# Entry
Amino acid sequence: DCYFIDVRVENCSSAAFAANKSPTNYFLRCLARSSGSGLAPNQSMMIWRNGVIWGNMKPVDLQNGGSAALYNSVLRAVGASARIYSLSTSAGNIVGNHNLYVREGDALFFERASISGGNELYTRLSDWQFASGQDLQSTALDPLFANATLGDFHPRSASGRFLDSGAITNDVPGLYSPLIDTGDPADTNWTNELSP
# Structure
C-alpha cells in the first residue's frame, strides 16, 4: 500500500496521480490540479479522501482494471469534452459519497466506453445517483473557494478562514462555502481543524 498525505500536484501534461499495477493507493488532503487527468489508476485502486481535483480534463480516468473510491472531496470538470468520471471498457468501479461536484461548459458527469452499442453516459449527478446508487449524500454546487484560479482552495467563511500565511481573514458577512458542515459526519478529521 502507498499513502499520500497533503501532496499537491499541478500542471502535468498527463495525470497528476497515476498508478500502474499498484494494489491500493491512499490519498488524504491532496490536490490534483490543471493536468490531463487528476487520478488515473490502471490495474490499481485509488482511495481519495478530503481532497480537491480541479481543472483537469478528466478528473478521474479509470483504465484497465482501475478502480477509485472518493469521499469528502471536490471534483470539477470544464468543457464539452470533459468528464468528471471517464472509464475505459475494461475499467473497474467507482464508489463514493459526501463529495461536491462542479460541471461547467457542458462537461458530462460520467462516461464509460463501450465496445458496441454506444457509451454509457450520465449528464448530471442526479442521473449518476439514480443509476449507480453512489454519491447519495453528494451535491453539485459552487464550492465558494477563496480563489481557485490562484490555487487557494480554502472554503470561504464569514466566520473566518486561514490564509496560506497562517493568518486569519473573514469573508463578506453571510458568505459561507457549502463545504462547511456537509462532509461525512462519521469522518472525524474535522476535529483536527483549528478554530479561526
